[in-house]
């Protein structure tokens, strides 16, 4: 089912291939945690210059660490705190070009320099967030926003 990129370590990102792989791996027939694990792995594989990809899932007024690829991370984040908590509370994608300039940044990995967080909304209710960090400043832009919001839409369809 997995479509190998056939690209070297210096590969250019093929965003269509990411979405195609997600369509192949995400399934209503498995527990949601399995889908989250595969989604994190696929995004981590295809995105260059990222050091963390994962999910935080909502429970009451807090986000709790879900499946991820990267170093160990913060286990819980209050709604409205840090990039993940604000994106979750506002239910809007956030791109932070330089985390050192974000006053409420919660650091889990000192190597992270930029971040994108996409909220996961199902039936107008917050499910969690997809969080991606990069060791490079200004790593994420509108193209990544579009692709990751499309990826989250695929996930929401099978939740």
Explain how this protein is built:
- The protein is an alpha+beta fold and 159 residues long.
- It has one domain: Beta-Lactamase.
- The protein contains four helices and six strands, in the order H-H-E-E-E-H-E-E-E-H.
- It has helices at 15-25, 32-46, 82-90, 142-158; strands spanning 52-59, 62-70, 76-78, 94-96, 114-122, 125-134.
- Strands 3-2-1-6-5-4 form a six-stranded antiparallel beta sheet, sandwiched between helices.
- Helix 1 packs antiparallel against helix 2 and helix 1 (15-25) runs parallel beside helix 4 (142-158).
- Mean pLDDT is 91; it is low at 6-11.
User: In which range does the helix fraction lie?
Assistant: 25-40%
Overall 3D geometry? globular
Strand order of the largest sheet: 3-2-1-6-5-4
Number of domain units: 1
CATH third-tier fold name? Beta-Lactamase
The helix/strand series, from N terminus to C terminus, equals: HHEEEHEEEH
Main beta-sheet annotation? 6 strands, antiparallel
Q: Specify Rg, calculated over alpha carbons.
A: 15 Å
**Total strand count, please?**
6
- Quote the average pLDDT: 91
């Amino acid at each position: 089912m997995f479509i190998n990129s056939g690209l070297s370590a210096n590969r250019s990102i093929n965003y269509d291939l990411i979405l195609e792989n997600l369509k192949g791996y995400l399934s209503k027939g498995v527990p949601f945690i399995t889908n989250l694990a595969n989604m994190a792995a696929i995004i981590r594989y295809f995105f260059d210059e990222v050091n963390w990809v994962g999910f935080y899932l909502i429970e009451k007024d807090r986000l709790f660490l879900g499946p991820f690829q990267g170093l160990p991370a913060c286990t819980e984040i209050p709604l409205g705190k840090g990039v993940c908590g604000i994106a979750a509370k506002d239910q809007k994608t956030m791109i932070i070009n330089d985390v050192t300039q974000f006053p409420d940044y919660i650091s889990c990995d000192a190597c992270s320099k930029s971040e994108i967080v996409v909220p996961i909304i199902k039936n107008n209710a917050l499910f969690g967030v997809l969080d991606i960090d990069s060791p490079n400043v200004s790593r994420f832009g509108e193209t990544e926003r579009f692709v990751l919001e499309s990826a989250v839409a695929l996930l929401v369809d099978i939740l």
